[in-house]
Amino acid sequence: MRLWKLAQYGAYVELGRIIVAGFRDFDLKVGTMSMGPRNAITDVAGVQVGHVTVQAGDINTGVTAIIPQPGNLFQNKLTAAVEVINGFGKSAGLVQVAELGTLETPILLTNTFGVGTCVNALIRYGIAENPDIGRKTSTLNAVVCECNDGVLSDIQAMAVTEADALAAIASAGSEVAEGSVGAGTGMVCFGFKGGIGTASRVIRLAGEARHLGVLVLANFGRAGDLILPDGRRADPKQPPQSEKGSIIIVLATDVAVDHRQLQRICRRAGAGIARLGAFWGHGSGDIVLGFTTANRIAHHLDVDTVAMERLSDHRMDEMFRAACEAAEEAILNALCAATAVQGPGGASRPLFADWLKAQRAS
């Protein structure tokens, strides 16, 4: 579900599903593996995504919420890992994820100046479910990731509110809107309009279909550097600038892996970024946050040892390929699904879908 905030009234409206183009709609594909039924991160059972889009005047921003699993995440944590490819970013909660290998809140994506607000919202959300947090038990590790949407939005307006963050969580469902929605509303990618994208891959283990899904907040890449899987270079005819953008990749799987294996899988998502022509420039924040829905970890444990199932390392190559392909296709889907927005001073960016249509017509 997507909620649009009517800023002048302080209310939200739900918009119906808008059919937007994906990369495969242009008879193009990424890699060799099969995609999941939705080709989305929500092909991993229990994962849900919600958006709140905030637009008014020069403001084009919002919040995207990823709910890793239903239920009380603080009491029943997920095995998680983070791979910081380039650390030019202001995200929250990643240090503890890297140290403990657990995730205990929904994941919120937003703009750079919305991180603190979203952290507060997640803390209130966690305390509402667990009144003992910070008093009789540990505090809460709220996880929020960001990209800078200042090109197409007045970031100094600090328009994202705690209510927006909580509304994004409440709106989450299995259908994932892509493009210029939620946190992706004001993002730019390779000189084109960027935003939210998702994709998934199927892995067969012991005769059963398992899934690896990716959701990206794509706001990176120099204009003119984008290389498509068929070898074409997509140039939006924008003046080249230094790499100042960022990308957040959220990776989910239902395969039982441990923290070490999961971080290795997250690292391979970086190959999907690189395949498209990015080089992770000095000013780019490129972060992969991954979790598995297997191997849950109870907050209160009365035992000295805990059994954990893990994938045999000789099957890791399929997970690596899945992470690479899904990340690459999710970025291309974000580009294809993006719709036009106009920011401060009339700022805008061309649409990648228009470029593809023009190429097909020529």
Automatic annotation (TrEMBL):
The domain of life for this entry's organism is: Bacteria
Membrane-spanning segments: none
Per its UniProt record, what InterPro entries does this chain match?
ArgJ-like_dom_sf, Peptidase_S58_DmpA
Q: Which family does it belong to?
A: Belongs to the peptidase S58 family.
- Database matches in PANTHER family: BLR5678 PROTEIN, D-AMINOPEPTIDASE
What is the protein's name according to its record? P1 family peptidase
Q: Which organism is it from?
A: Tianweitania aestuarii
